[in-house]
Amino acid sequence: MNRYQQILAVILFFSLSTFSVAQITVSGTVTDASTGEALAGANVVVNGTEKGSAADVNGAFRINNVPNGATLTASMIGYSDASMSAASTVNFKLSASALEMSALDVVANKATYRKTPVAFTDLNEEELQLRVASQDLTMVMNETPGVYATNGGGGAGDSYLYVRGFDQRNTAILINGVPVNDMENGWVYWSNWDGMSDVTSSIQIQRGLGASNLAIGSVGGTINVRTSAAEQESGGSFKQETGSYNFQKSTLTYHTGLSNSGFALSALLQRKTGSGYAYGTWTDAYAYFLTASKTFKNSLLDVYVLGAPQQHGQRDGDNNHPFETWNDVHGGDLRTNSGYNGSYDGSGSGWGYVSEANAQKIKTGQSSLDAVGSALFGNVLHTRKEIGGDKWMINNRTNYYHKPVYGLNFKYDVNNKTTISNVLYYSTGRGGGTGPLNSRGTGLYADDSLDADGNTVNFYSEASVKYINPNPDSEVPGQYDWDGFIDYNTYVDENLNNPLAWDIDDNGDTLGVTAWGSHTWMGTDTLSSQYATLQWNYGRPYDRTYSDDEIRSKAIIRGSVNHHDWYGSISTLTHDFSDNLKGTFALDARSYTGEHYRQVLNLLGGDYFIDLYGNVNDTDNDSKMKRVGDQIAYHNIGYVKWLGYSSQLEYSTNQLSTVLSLARSSTIYQREDRHNYTQTQAMSAKAAFDGHAYKVGANYNVSDNLNVFANFGRLQTAPKFNSVFLNYVNDVNPKANPEKVQSMEFGVGYNTGNIRANFNYYNTDWMDKSLIKSSGNSIFNIEGIDAKHSGVELDLKMGLMKMLSINTSLSIGNWTWNSDIENVTVFDDYNRGGESETISIFTKGVHVGGAPQTQLSLGLDARPIDGLVVYPVVKYFNNMYADFDPADRTSADGGDSYKADAATIMDLHTTYSLDLLGYNMSIGFHALNLLDTEYINTALDGGDGSAEGVEVFYGLGRRINLSLGINF
């Protein structure tokens, strides 16, 4: 053999040797990293292939013909994945992690960066715990482009949010993949979710039509809140928070850890109290959360219950005032008289102190809460002893509610290509809100009473005046003299026998309400004598039409009750047709029953009340005399049935991802009225509406750093319930039509590891929108209005150095109403079922109000030493237009709404974690509105766009929150 033949033989030998080892057999085990126990059923796959094996009862696996140099990945529900290079023997040790609620990911279709063609933002658990500071969960979303959250009136849980200018009634809110928007009006009451921030593991905010598989009305976007799954390691934690305005919050959590049988349970209990930033906006709340999980070989079962029984004081529209009035009330300086009004933005609606004797006498109303709520709060709702003091107070605007949610999630892997999941849920809400019923305004009337000149006046004529205390130096502080009013309700002058006669003093002059105390009624000196006298008046509390010896209350505090029972099921099937093509098919069924009525909560010293809106079934005087707990004003039940189904196809490669989604839905409304109709006529006809949605989108990864995406979609949704049944009657509105939405967006993403930036443009056209708006006694049914929302959004995260990074977001919108509307129907709220009138309103070109159309957020994340995080964030809001009153838009000459001044608000969040005495501890300091900036929170235009006519709420001032937590 010559030299060349020898060389060729050597090359051939090594080539054959290489080929012989290119395919190997890999065997090994999969065990728990902490216990060493075998993980039976764990999956081991060869990355990039369909080769794989499941570990047996001993944790052993074996895979033949594995390419040399390949990577293997082991996974099991409840554990973090682990990857290793292929070798003859590979032993995996998996570490326990929080259970992934995979069924919910299937339902909510969580978006993935560089794959899902939608604009979205993720907030993880660490970010939430750093920034939320026991605010409403919505407030942490203000750092997201296109999202604006406001505290509203400032009561606990009274926040609401906008996405791309659309309020939360038109933004799909999901909790664990389940829609929670009210099925009648689309609203979300965040006070029902108090404590949610302490059990939330992540939030994904998808802007625009989103990627959800459900046939839902996500005009503005989709927000999916994920609660924590059961932890796999045993232990617990306790956290105590204290803060401004007597704020106290205690949170206890406990985890059993994962048992050998695959069972784990986690629980949370919470208690929160506080007197509130504005006087009268106290909070008294509990929260609980329980989740249990069980893993099987190919499936996961998870059950949970969460609830937050609570009550809190509120401020309503009666606290919106013009700038001049705010200055008058506060002596020209919005921060003066702090000992009286508490803070520059006033007090709770109808707030005032009351004597202990009167407090004990009147705090016995019925709450309409469920057994849990009643056990916690009893019947003490609008009356309470001041925290940190010895005074009793009344706020006639309070909210009380308990809405537990029960859920069961099941996911089953049929094989390595097909997965079935099902989510079952049930929610039962009990409670309502209190408010004045003829206990505000310049005067109090009965039907057909006479004024000082003998003229007939109606019950509410000239009687709607806002809550303002004109005498801050009074010995009876607050916006309402409740003791004086109770005395007025109950004082008996035996010398006055004729209930229809006017009170005349010794000089022959007519007496006004100034006779019952040192305060003029609501401070209206010129009106008090004119509007004071009633058929049963000061000194004459007996209306002999009904009783000679029982007091007829001139005014009361009522409860507006909203009970509901809601259950549903979301079933989903996913199938991988190939490595690149995946299909998802979902069925969404829901049933909702909402019962609404008012009831007498507090007779304010009287014995009974006569309902202005008398029940047609009350046929005698005895039945018309309403006592504590009796129903008044209205009693109706809304029935909603929903069925939706959807199909979605996704095609994905390393570079290209496309999605096509089709959905249809059917909504059936029906109304039962037990107040305005007899029993045989109480049920309305059914009103059915079809909805549909289709979405198409694509994402293309140009390089490892750059991707582009675009999507387009159309949506048709059923009108809201109150647009179908108008003016408290069962007649189906023939003009109620489905609302239509057309949306498109495109965006660019850039990611280098050190820099992650996303930019997108969107345009949404909303057509045939229905609006129900109120102004004074009038209700406006606005149908067929169009709006156009377009804008650009940017979010950027960038590392400046090893321990310093910035988070910033920017959104610039242009949101306008796009049409004038003729034949707007106007109803008189105090003439229910009566005749209506029609007007035209001119809104084309008027900017959409409620949310700032320009937003900027800049946060600095500094971690100078291990365990310490300092996060100051500045938020800038501009181009916020006031909402408008339809009554002020009847002329084509009307301009834009009032635009609030720009506002810059700074928050500071700091946490420090350390190990002490064998325990992991954390300390937190949070300063909200650190610089105590004065800014406009909400605004209602006065009709001419001027600062003189606009009525506003100021935002909340500086608040401090301190926390100490310990893990055990």
Description:
The chain is mainly β. Among the domains are: 15-94, Sandwich (Immunoglobulin-like); 103-227, Ferric Hydroxamate Uptake Protein, Chain A, domain 1 (Beta Complex), CATH 2.170.130.10; 752-764 and 773-968, TonB-dependent receptor, beta-barrel domain (Maltoporin, Chain A, Beta Barrel). Helices cover 8% and strands 46% of the residues. It has a 26-stranded antiparallel β-sheet that branches. A five-stranded mixed β-sheet has the order 8-14-15-12-13. The longest helix is centred in the first third of the chain and has 20 residues, at 3-22. The N and C termini lie far apart (77 Å).
How are the elements arranged and paired?
Elements: H1 3-22, E1 23-32, E2 43-46, E3 52-54, E4 60-67, E5 71-75, E6 82-85, E7 92-94, H2 102-108, E8 119-124, H3 125-131, E9 147-150, E10 160-163, E11 166-167, E12 172-175, E13 178-179, E14 200-207, E15 221-227, E16 235-243, E17 247-255, E18 263-274, E19 283-295, E20 299-307, E21 310-313, H4 323-329, H5 338-341, E22 351-354, H6 356-362, H7 371-377, E23 383-385, E24 392-395, E25 398-402, E26 405-413, E27 418-437, E28 449-450, E29 456-457, H8 482-490, H9 525-528, E30 556-576, E31 581-602, E32 609-610, H10 621-624, E33 625-626, E34 631-652, E35 656-673, E36 687-701, E37 706-717, H11 721-724, E38 739-751, E39 755-775, E40 778-801, E41 804-817, E42 821-828, E43 837-841, E44 852-862, E45 868-880, E46 903-916, E47 919-928, E48 936-940, E49 951-954, E50 959-967
Parallel strand pairs: 1-7, 12-15
Antiparallel strand pairs: 1-4, 2-3, 2-5, 5-6, 8-14, 9-10, 10-11, 12-13, 14-15, 16-17, 16-50, 17-18, 18-19, 19-20, 19-21, 20-26, 21-25, 22-24, 23-24, 25-27, 26-27, 27-30, 28-29, 30-31, 31-34, 32-33, 34-35, 35-36, 36-37, 37-38, 38-39, 39-40, 40-41, 40-42, 41-44, 42-43, 44-45, 45-46, 46-47, 47-50, ...
